[in-house]
Amino acid sequence: MPMYGPGTENRIQTMELRIRLEQLGVDAFHHVCKPAKSGSHTRTQSRLLLILAGSSTEDWQSTYHAIHLGMYIYRRTSDVLHGRIEGLNIPQVVLDEWQAAVDGLEKIARQQGA
Questions:
Q1: DSSP code of 112?
Q2: Position 31 in a domain
């Protein structure tokens, strides 16, 4: 039996989503820019846009929309984790939607080799 309630479980899921988005940003940066040394998890939202670099003309718009949604989720997870919203307990249905969106963005990045 867990020592915490469902609200804590939701915040843990929120943190996991944020970490996955940060990793996507780092991976995209390294794939496109090929820096000499490893980068950090800064400027995640900007770095997510680098996923576009591997998009073909045909799927550019859908990729951009997936990235834009990922950027929104990143901002909202930040609001939750830093207590900038009144309701810290995000409903499970919202977390499920965020999970599906991040899964989709990871799939796009994998297909592009990022």
A1: T
A2: yes
14 is a domain residue: yes
Assess if residue 1 is contained within a domain. Answer: no
Which domain, by its residues, includes 102? 6-111
Give a yes or no: residue 95 inside a domain.
Answer: yes
pLDDT along the chain (114 residues), means of 10: 72 93 92 79 86 83 95 93 75 94 95 76
pLDDT at site 86? 64
Q: Structurally, how many domains does the chain consist of? A: 1
Q: Give the whole-angstrom CA distance, residue 86 versus residue 57.
A: 41
Cβ neighbours of 93 (radius 10 Å): 8
The pLDDT of residue 5: 72
CA distance 90 to 42: 24
The full 3-state SS of 16-72, as one line of letters, equals HHHHHHHHHHHHHHHHHHCCCCCCCCCCHHHHHHHHHHHCCCCCHHHHHHHHHHHHH
